[in-house]
Amino acid sequence: MSSIVPTDLTDTHWQALRELAVEAMTRAYAPYSRFKVGAAALVDDGRLVSGCNVENASYGVTLCAECGLVSELIRTGGGRLVAFACVDAHGRACAPCGRCRQLLNEHAADGMVLAMPSGMMSIDEVLPDRFTAADVERVVGQQS
Ligand code: THU
């Protein structure tokens, strides 16, 4: 079976992603910020993965919703993320933080699309000139 690519994305995919993100948001554990987040993504094999934020009394230990999503991605077999949606408590599109853009990029399909508050954007647009495995390899790969 051929992989799903960003040009295959339809309104049906985005509707399913928004619904799953809202459902994930209702599970958020956010007693400190009281800002609940749900995230959902479509994997190139058709799977849907999701996550919610999980806060901690030691604030810096907080896990963003994207952390749970990426953990589920890996636990359920890996693959590349084709489309991503993140919502706040009102079900409105929420921008992934900078750290989570990096986290998502590691597993992104070429041209992955994100539903941002300002509209659809590609991973290249939300994280230009990014640090990747190639940057690591350029240095570490040359060491004997
Ligand atoms: N948060 C996420 O879950 N994902 C993001 O990309 C942005 C921020 C969470 C972390 C914290 O629990 C709450 O939103 C307020 O910052």
TrEMBL record:
Its cofactor is Zn(2+). It holds the Pfam family dCMP_cyt_deam_1. GO terms for biological process: nucleobase-containing small molecule metabolic process; pyrimidine-containing compound metabolic process. Its EC number is 3.5.4.5. Keywords: Hydrolase, Metal-binding, Zinc. Residues 12-134 form the CMP/dCMP-type deaminase domain. Zn(2+) binds at C64, C97, C100. It catalyses: 2'-deoxycytidine + H2O + H(+) = 2'-deoxyuridine + NH4(+); cytidine + H2O + H(+) = uridine + NH4(+). Substrate binds at N53, V54, E55, N56, A57, S58, Y59. GO terms for cellular component: cytosol. The keyword Hydrolase applies. This enzyme scavenges exogenous and endogenous cytidine and 2'-deoxycytidine for UMP synthesis. Recycles cytidine and 2-deoxycytidine for uridine and 2-deoxyuridine synthesis, respectively. Catalyzes the hydrolytic deamination of cytidine and 2-deoxycytidine to form, respectively, uridine and 2-deoxyuridine. Belongs to the cytidine and deoxycytidylate deaminase family. This is Cytidine deaminase. It comes from Actinomyces oris.
